[in-house]
Amino acid sequence: MTAYLPSLFGGMLIGLSALLLLALNGRVAGVSGIVGRLAQGVNVAVNAGFVAGLLSGPVLYHMFAGGWPAVTVTTPLPLIAIAGLLVGFGTRMGSGCTSGHGVVGLARLSPRAFAAVASFLLAGVLAVTILRGFGL
Predict the structure, then answer these.
(1) Global confidence as pTM
(2) Cβ of 117: how many Cβ atoms within 10 Å?
(3) 3-class SS at 73?
(4) Of 71, 87, 108, which residue constitutes the final position of a domain?
(5) Which of 2, 12, 84, 98 is the most buried (most CB within 10 A)?
(6) Domains in the chain: how many in total?
């Protein structure tokens, strides 16, 4: 049971940050939108602060946990790059990412978010099924 506590705590922090951003700034905590607005130079202080908070998470984990978590990635780097580009394309096509639709949109009972999350999950299941069929 204690193995799940870091994930539970992390999820609670994500929810709290999304709630605070929406309540204090009126913005949805969608990472793709925040990074896009930061790249465009829109509302730089708030967007840069949010991104800095995301980037400082692993450093804080290292400080408090006393080390980095063990992570093993066996997927070839070109496949990871292609997947990243497809995710970026999908976030633009779907008008948001999993954080915006999945964390905030579902909490707001947005029909568009429910459709988007269902699409994300279906695409993930199909991708895993297809890639496992090819032995990847």
Answers:
(1) 0.70
(2) 18
(3) coil
(4) 71
(5) 98
(6) 2
Q: Are residues 67 and 107 in the same domain?
A: no
Which amino acid would we find at residue 110?
A: S
Query: What one-letter code names the amino acid at 111?
Result: P
pLDDT tens digit sequence for 22-80: 888 888 888 888 888 899 999 899 899 989 988 998 898 899 989 988 889 998 999 99
- Residue at which a domain ends, from 42, 71, 100: 71
Per-residue model confidence as pLDDT tens digits over 96-113? 887 788 888 888 899 999
d(CA 34, CA 31): 5
Structural domain of residue 56, as residue ranges? Answer: 1-71
**42-54 per-position pLDDT tens digit:** 989 989 998 998 8
Residues 84, 87: Cα–Cα separation, whole Å: 5
In this structure, the answer to whether residues 77 and 58 fall within a common structural domain is no
CA distance 25 to 104: 14
Residue 48 and residue 36: Cα distance in Å, rounded? 11
Question: For residue 134, what is the DSSP state?
Answer: T
